[in-house]
Amino acid sequence: MSAFLKPIAMPITHTPVRIAMLATPAPESAALQRFGSGLRQALNTYGADVTLVDVGEVARLSDGDAAILHHDFHFHPDADKVVDILGEVSVPSIVILHTVPKHPTAQQRSTIEAIADAASHVVVLSRSAAGQLRDGYTVSSSAVTTLPFGTRVSRAPQLKRPSRPTILTWGWLGPGAGIERVIDAMEALRGLPGRPRYVIAGPTHPGVLAAEGEAYRESLVERIAQRGVADCVTIDGGDYEATLTTLFQQASVIALPYDSTDLTAAPVLAEAIARGRPVVATAFPHAIELLGTGAGSVVVHDDADGFALALRKVLTQPRLSGSMAAEARQMAPEMDWSVVAVGYVGLVRDLLAQRRMVRW
Q1: How many domains does one find in the chain?
Q2: Is 34 in the same domain as 55?
Q3: What is the chain's alpha carbon radius of gyration, rounded to the nearest angstrom?
Q4: Which distant-in-sequence residues (6+ apart) come within 8 Å of 258 by Cβ?
Q5: Which of 131, 154, 211, 281 has its CA 20 to 30 A from that of 292?
Q6: How far apart are alpha carbons 263 and 279 in whole angstroms?
Q7: Is 53 in the same domain as 179?
Q8: Are residues 142 and 92 part of one domain?
């Protein structure tokens, strides 16, 4: 049974809380921006009135009942700016920690501890993140709440899958995605019944593109040629956002071969669970947590043969893949934005009640 806080979505029965949310710095299609947009829309539906505040208008964060900010080391390498902003906020503040390194540098540790000290409360997006925060940082457990990584659970009708089984990896491309693992695995998988194909969907990450151009994508194309698997591997750099539902419904299995060993919040993993798809992933903490009850397989990072074997099992054992998909569908509702938003609203109301008690 999940240890997540599991509020029940219900109609609004009292005045919505007013929340000011600091805009994320990420480009329009980035995971952080997608998360912020999804949370904002859900809060507006389930008990809150949310105002988006630009970073140049920090004073407006105190205009509501509470303020919500995000912190992610991919976009905020140090705490100075976030802590400075928190110092100017006069209402209860919540910081959502999108990354909690398992083996933090001294700077990363001091960053998170400074943020937790300055904020009224912090939210982490997985139990693994809460555990890493408890074990590796000096942060009061009473100031931490775990709420699932929110996503929209698919209710679209199931499409007929293509005759060729499809392995899917999607998202922005860049070093660390681990796609090489699956390209290499296709040498052993290409001869399976139905001639499986591997679809890599997504443009190059803007930061990678600015620094290195298309060198990473070109290295993947070269690897595909070297392995002789061009007939079963496709790299699609188009607008995957517009076709995401179709991509998921056509996929037999989602491959998450990430290099990271301390990833505690993986947006693509949350999306895969929400869409009811089996997953094969490397053993990063969020995957170990969400796939541990049977929604997928987790393989240690240095076991290339093990990753290929896990994919083979899903592709050739319908009963196994069916049970994985069923477990994912069972888990999905607690990750739906309608449920997650109620958790945030409840947290805000608790913080407001605590403040009133202190003043009284």
Answers
A1: 2
A2: yes
A3: 21
A4: 176, 177, 178, 266, 281, 282, 284
A5: 154
A6: 16
A7: no
A8: yes
User: Does 58 share its domain with 25?
Assistant: yes
Look at the alpha carbons of 9, 12, 15, 20 in this order and tell me if their dihedral is positive or negative.
positive
For 229, the token pair is: 């698997």
Provide the domain limits for residue 260.
166-334
The whole model's pTM is what? 0.89
Q: Is the dihedral of CA 68, 120, 92, 107 positive or negative?
A: negative
- For residue 237, give both structure tokens: 């750099």
| CA–CA gap between residue 24 and residue 170 (Å, rounded) | 22
H-helix segments, the chain: 31-45, 80-88, 106-118, 127-136, 179-189, 206-212, 215-227, 244-250, 267-274, 285-291, 304-316, 318-331, 337-359
- C-alpha pair distances (Å), 176 with each of 181, 258, 260, 268, 301: 11, 6, 7, 14, 12
Same domain for 103 and 201: no
Q: Per-residue pLDDT tens for 90-144?
A: 999 999 999 999 889 999 999 999 999 999 999 999 999 999 999 999 999 999 9
Rounded distance between C-alpha atoms, residue 199 and residue 229, angstroms: 12
Q: Which residue's structure tokens are 């803007």? A: 206
Cα–Cα dist 118/132, whole Å: 20
Q: Quick one: which of 149, 210, 199, 225 has its CA closest to 174? A: 210
3-state SS class at 216: helix
Q: Show the tokens assigned to 302.
A: 């240095």
Tens digit of pLDDT for each residue in 305-340?
999 999 999 999 999 999 999 999 999 999 999 999
CB-side exposure of 91: number of CA atoms within 13 Å? 21
CATH of the domain at 260: 3.40.50.2000
Residues 246 and 340 in one domain: no
Of the candidates 270, 256, 344, the residue with the CA atom closest to the CA atom of residue 70: 344
**CA dist list (Å): 179 to 32, 107, 233, 261, 317:** 22, 30, 11, 15, 23
Neighbours of 66 (CB within 10 A): 27
Structure tokens at 8: 């029940």
d(CA 205, CA 171): 9
